[in-house]
Amino acid sequence: MADYVVSVDPGNGGTNAVLAKANGYKSIYFPSVRASATGDTLGLGADMELQYDYVDWYGHRYVVGEDVLRVTRRHMERHTGANRYGNELHQFLTAVALGKLGIDKGTVDLTLFAPPGMYLEANRLIKQRFNEHKGKVEIQFKGDKKPRTWRYETIRIWPEGVGAAACFILDDNGQLVSNDTLNGEVVVLDMGAYTLDALKFTDGSFNLESLEHATWESGGVTTHILEPILRQVKKQGDDFSLLSADDIDRVLRLGLVSEDFTLRTAGYEIDLQPLVEKYRERYAGWIANNIADGVFGGFRGIKSVILVGGGALLIEDFMREWYGDKILDRKKSPTARRIHPVDFNCVGGLRLALAQQKQGTPS
Q1: SS3 call for 150
Q2: Across-strand partners of 35?
Q3: Is 344 exposed, middle or buried (0-12, 13-18, 19+ CB in 10 A)?
Q4: Quick check: 120 and 31 in contact, CB under 8 A?
Q5: For 359, left (φ over 0), alpha (ψ -120 to 50), or beta?
Q6: Among 77, 105, 319, 341, which has the minimal tally of Cβ within 10 Å of its Cβ?
Q7: pLDDT tens digits for range 243-255
Q8: DSSP state letter for 339
Q9: What is the pLDDT of residues 292-309, one digit of tens each?
Q10: Rounded Cα gap, residues 21 and 87, in angstroms
Q11: End-to-end distance of the chain based on CA atoms, in angstroms?
Q12: What H or E segment, with its residue span, contains residue 308?
């Protein structure tokens, strides 16, 4: 059995990861972006030089996540689309997540995810690419005296949305909890940064007849909310021309917690809340028109709809207004009520891994 059981979702927008602990799990999140960095110092001390973390990865040094916007916008790098699964950046984000969770050696039981509409090919590519060096990983964080090394003993790949569904029938130990949440016809709408996944379950099993409508590329939050807001912000003047969707994403993430949607740059402040309200309603309408009504017939015959992913909090109130009790209230679920919608896949993937370990099921 592996030394660590970890579930990682290195998404197009952000990387979520959870590590199994004796009393639950440890979780982390950071934006899925990196930039080249030198890590050089003039020796002037912490009061005179900007302090930041970096990682060394196979001969290159990078800043990652939030530090990219704070430290350097040169050579910003992310990868969206079908070709990203299992590639070098995908492996890098996974390794950074494991390091941030405290792993520095040993063996890892790793769970990853892929959009259901791309699952068969992505599953093959991820396992092939992650095993190119017999599953061995080497990465060094700032402050480490030597590189961290570990090996992926087991790699499990799940379609996005399946992990989320598992949160409603498995507890933190991977034990099956008796309830009727997934009985009958249930739809999971998983709204990520780049894709929107729409999965139909029948009595707890993924219905393959809906596979052709399972993944909507460019159906996520970036295309429908972040980029339209960014276009409006850039019209304010040259001082806003260097901003990216990552800046809007940061304001949005913080604002959903603090209710402060203020964008601050170059000495200016812009309240983005009116734009957030405008485009989240438009996004909800797009989902209703194309997916809820266009694919699932207004959810007629569907017992419940589970909203997960980064877009869930942005459209939930509109969807509940339009489709009523069809939209599942996750806060009433004893096994899911404490999980943030962004973490559903990751936490569910961890619970599935623990359940398979108990059953002796191979990856």
Answers
A1: strand
A2: 63
A3: buried
A4: no
A5: alpha
A6: 105
A7: 999 999 999 999 9
A8: S
A9: 999 999 999 999 999 999
A10: 29
A11: 12
A12: strand 304-308
